[in-house]
Amino acid sequence: MRAIDYFLKAAERYAERIALVDGEFRCTYGELRAACERVARALWAGGLRDEDRVAIYAPNDARVLMCMLGLMQAGGAWVPINYRNGMDANVEFMRYAETRWLFYHSAFRELAREMHARVPALRHLVCLDAEDGENPSLARFMEQGKNAVERAWADARGNPERMVGLVPTGGTTGPAKGVRVTSDSWGAFVEMAGNYWHCEDALPVCLSTAPLSHAAGVVAFALFTIGATNVILPRFEAEAVLENIERHRVTHMFLPPTAFYALLAHPDVRKRDCSSLRLMLLAASPVSPDRVRQGVEIFGPCVCQCYGQTEAPMLMTWLDRKTVAAAAAGVHPERLRSCGKATYAVRLGIMDDQGNLLAANETGEIVARGALVTPGYHNLPDATAEIRTHGWHHTGDVGYYDDDGYFYIVDRKKDMIITGGFNVYSGEVESCLMGLPGIYECAVVGVPDEKWGEAVKAFVVPREGAALREEEIIGYCRERLGGVKTPKSVEFRAEIPKTPAGKIDRKALRAPYWKGTDRAVH
């Protein structure tokens, strides 16, 4: 089916149910459907045609989802713009994507004007929440299309190759590449999400606190298909999250690990009533097993994990809440380190550098096949060919699967440290470090070393009030990891630098130590 058809079916079924809550704003599925149709008609009246790129540039706001649905109904392709990115990076991607339309929030009006000046294809701007000079508010824009004729662009098969979105990769190793998300790959994700995330014993309520321009928007869309009420917070704040779980009886929530750790660290987390939670979904990067166990202890048997990437969104693997709860109780405790088993629409394997598929418990690159996988990068045939060697999609992630089919992510290939001739993965060391109660956050990189070539170095953010010593941390790791993988040094920091997507920016941590060298490896 087309992406929008999943929402339209839900809107017919749950017409009277509340779809969106944003502060005092409420709207039902029926009202949201009518709004997204008005957005679509206004886009047609303004000249939108097949797969025109439509960017949304705003903090979390109910109107972000309204416009996302509207542009999908009109047949446009969603270009999510991360407001945490620098202007140059966003402009570069919008130029590359040939973006013609921009919905933006008034908080970014000056930045939107700069985008208009610097992106040649950009012709139409709409301000979500206010009139802004020549640019209409969303409310006035929707009125402009009330007499527009609906464009019938669907085919009998649901346009499987149609581009639904042009989504930027993280761009940590260079300019972001645009991933072509088609009806086929979007549909594979949404159908699996509806199956894996369904709960029988409660009406679904999803709390959206991570950026809707990132995975939270995708999660919110998927949960529309099961009739969820999406409660939107402007940003992640642990206190507000706990308060809203209680107030709205939240059942579903997606959190990246950094937000999950902050929630666990809140002084009142054990005093709050979080008994409504059914799925606390952890994704975006690996999570410390000790923190997963703590999450089950505090929130109950609701913690679950999945693994995916922009090129194969979110659900390449699934680790269900029952398996996590059992592992936390001591039944196969190693599964707390797992991201789960391959989902039913994807085949996963582990491959060596020569293209050979490896057996259980052998470490190599995770590769994938299936409808979830993108057709490739926009206008980048060489980059697409690079991730398509040996007839598989190459994720760039290193891992293995065990005898029961559970997958374990070790690290990104580019984050591997070669020390004394041995391979050490940053993620494995970070996972060990996070087992120390006094550590709030950490990151591990390789730095140049005369003896080892690269030395394992840890950056640690202590919890408030914790008294950590370097020798204590090193001793803790040596006991659990052995000498090779143990950090040779520890540096204490007030915070760990992050990419705009909220992931650890190891490139920024490494840079000062490799400055002036010919290459960033020894």
Describe the structure.
This protein is α/β, with parallel strands linked by helices and 522 residues long. It folds into three domains: 32-144 and 161-182, Rossmann fold (3-Layer(aba) Sandwich); 236-383 and 390-412, 3-Layer(aba) Sandwich (Rossmann fold); 420-514, GMP Synthetase, Chain A, domain 3, CATH 3.30.300.30. It is 32% helix and 25% strand. The chain has helices at 3-13, 29-45, 62-74, 87-97, 109-118, 138-144, 183-196, 215-224, 238-248, 257-265, 289-299, 321-328, 381-386, 426-433, 470-481, 506-514; strands spanning 18-22, 25-28, 53-57, 77-80, 99-104, 124-127, 163-168, 178-182, 205-208, 229-232, 252-255, 279-282, 303-309, 312-319, 341-342, 346-351, 364-370, 393-401, 407-412, 416-419, 422-425, 439-449, 453-462, 489-492. The strands form six sheets. It has a nine-stranded mixed β-sheet with strand order 2-1-10-9-11-12-13-14-15, with helices on both faces. A four-stranded parallel β-sheet has the order 4-3-5-6, with helices on both faces. Helix 1 (3-13) runs antiparallel to helix 2 and helix 2 (29-45) crosses helix 3. The radius of gyration is 23 Å and the shape is globular. The termini are far apart. Residues 518-522 have low confidence and may be disordered.
The CATH homologous superfamily of the largest domain corresponds to ANL, N-terminal domain
Mean pLDDT over the residues: 92
CATH class of the largest domain: Alpha Beta
Proportion of residues in helical segments: 25-40%
Unreliable segments of 5+ consecutive residues: 518-522
Shape: globular
Structural class: alpha/beta
Strands across the major sheet, in which order? Answer: 2-1-10-9-11-12-13-14-15
Strand content: 25-35%
As a whole number of angstroms, the C-alpha radius of gyration is 23 Å
Helix count from the secondary structure assignment? 16
For the record, give the distance between the C-alpha atoms at the N and C termini, rounded to a whole number.
50 Å
Q: What's the CATH architecture of the largest domain?
A: 3-Layer(aba) Sandwich
- CATH topology category name of the largest domain: Rossmann fold
Instruction: Please give the domain count.
Output: 3
